[in-house]
TrEMBL record:
<dbReference type="InterPro" id="IPR023213">
    <property type="entry name" value="CAT-like_dom_sf"/>
</dbReference>
<protein>
    <recommendedName>
        <fullName>Diacylglycerol O-acyltransferase</fullName>
    </recommendedName>
</protein>
Length: 446
């Protein structure tokens, strides 16, 4: 198989340098809950297969300042992290939360890991956690599907330390020279972006985070998160009765949650931020995506989704122009110093109080089978790592809704941090249940 390009794509370089500048970054998590016996040997095969696919890599730094870094081969941890003692089924979400606190690093490793918690009632909770620098949601989903089917994908990256320092300096200097046209275009795009978003930039720059060194010894927190399951047939019926689609029902729920949590603008609208995948066959980028922002009036979303559907359609049709504005400056990522990256964090999060949304849609069956059999329940989440209450408050709090459909269920997870509180799981669950009830959706909570 020919060797693929090992230089990080600009967007992946930006993700990695942002992680280094802030000392924290998003983690993608899959969690499976088995209520029947788990084949641990099959889970170990699943983990080994993951190391021979899109997850089979980590970042190796360039010795040349401002050059892009490289991917090198990394097969993953030597074994699954298997808990020695069983825990009650009711503590599965606690187990998933605890695993998020174990360090993940796309450079030093592990850039991802698999952990298994046996349950006293039988079965087990299994989780896969990965740095967003190594894979976006769709890349992780694709890697899981391939690994569960027993498929491997040898990316052809070199082993760590394969280049001498002199060789690395020469190759990366040549790569930097070749990038000059990209950098020139990115400067033009950045000037246009700044001119078009002057107010948003002015209002968001002040929300920058502290230096990573200030996180050492700080009281880290995990953003409260809850998961709920809705029968797929009921979801389908409800979206049709509201005149919507699965995406618009998901967006309507996000808008109503934004209203309940006070994340509205002066006109009462909720800003939903969606990633939009650009992943193609054979795509080895870790983050092959752009984004779009929807402005939704939450007043009537529980009775009709037609306006939400129209807003989705309008944004998708305008995506090419929005993509240029969002990704045009990305070639400047290797040139941004850490201090500036921290000041720009607020801008990257968007103006006001957006609601983050990620809908993976209907998943392939193997995604729900890390041991070769269907898990009874699936949880998908994106959670910020190594953060503090002070940082979350400075950023205006957070609200993130994620969803996936598999095995006859729609799995929904909601993570929230309110500035000044309250920030308890019980209150979050009550608010989420209230919103789902307004949509006349019957949910089972994890």
């Amino acid at each position: 198989m020919p060797v693929v390009e090992s230089t990080l794509a600009y967007i992946d370089q930006g993700s990695f340098l942002g992680l280094r500048a802030l000392g924290r970054g998003p983690l993608a998590q899959y969690g499976w809950i088995y209520e029947h016996p788990v084949d641990l040997d099959a889970v170990r095969r699943f983990q080994r297969n993951l190391g021979h696919g899109l997850l089979g890599r980590r970042v190796e730094r360039s010795p040349l300042p401002f050059a892009r870094d490289r991917w090198v081969t990394w097969r993953g941890p030597a074994d699954i992290d298997l808990a020695a003692t069983a825990r009650p089924r009711s503590e599965a979400m606690d187990f998933f939360d605890e695993q998020l606190r174990i360090p993940i690093d796309p450079e030093a490793g592990p850039s991802w890991r698999v952990a298994v918690q046996p349950l006293t009632e039988g079965g087990a909770a299994i989780t896969l956690i990965a740095s967003h620098t190594v894979c976006d949601g769709l890349a992780l989903t694709q890697a899981i599907s391939q690994a569960a089917r027993g498929e491997t994908w040898e990316l052809g990256y070199p082993p760590p330390g394969a280049r001498t320092r002199g060789q690395a300096l020469r190759e990366d200097a040549a790569q930097l020279l070749r990038a000059i046209p990209d950098i020139a275009k990115a400067i033009v795009a950045a000037i246009k972006l700044a001119a078009n978003n002057a107010r948003d930039i002015a209002s968001s720059v002040g929300r920058s985070g502290p230096s990573p060194t200030k996180l050492d010894g700080a009281a880290l927190v995990t953003v409260p998160s809850v998961a709920a399951y809705v029968d797929e047939a009921q979801w389908q019926s409800r979206m049709e009765s509201l005149g919507g689609t699965s995406n618009s029902l998901f967006a309507g729920i996000g808008a109503k949650l934004g209203q309940v949590f006070g994340r509205v603008d002066d006109g009462g609208l909720v800003r939903l931020q969606f990633p939009v995948s650009e992943r193609t066959d054979g795509d080895t980028r870790a983050n092959a995506l752009t984004g779009m922002a929807l402005m939704i009036d939450p007043a009537n979303v529980t009775t009709s989704l037609r306006d939400v559907r129209a807003e989705l359609k309008r944004n998708l049709s305008a995506l090419s122009e929005a993509r240029f504005e969002l990704l045009g400056p990305v070639a400047l990522a290797p040139l941004v110093p850490p201090g500036l990256a921290r000041r720009l964090e607020g801008m990257a999060l968007g103006a006001g109080a957006p609601v983050g949304c990620s809908n993976l849609g209907k998943l392939d069956g193997p995604v729900n089978r890390p041991d070769g059999t269907d898990a009874e329940y699936l949880v998908v989440r994106q959670i910020e790592s190594r953060t503090t209450a002070e940082i979350l408050d400075r950023l205006g709090g957070t609200l993130f809704l994620a969803s996936a459909q598999v095995n006859g269920k729609v799995s929904l997870s909601l993570a929230s941090w309110r500035v000044g509180g309250p920030n308890s799981k019980d209150q979050l669950k009550a608010a989420f249940a209230q919103v789902l009830d307004e949509f006349r959706l019957t949910a089972t909570f994890e």
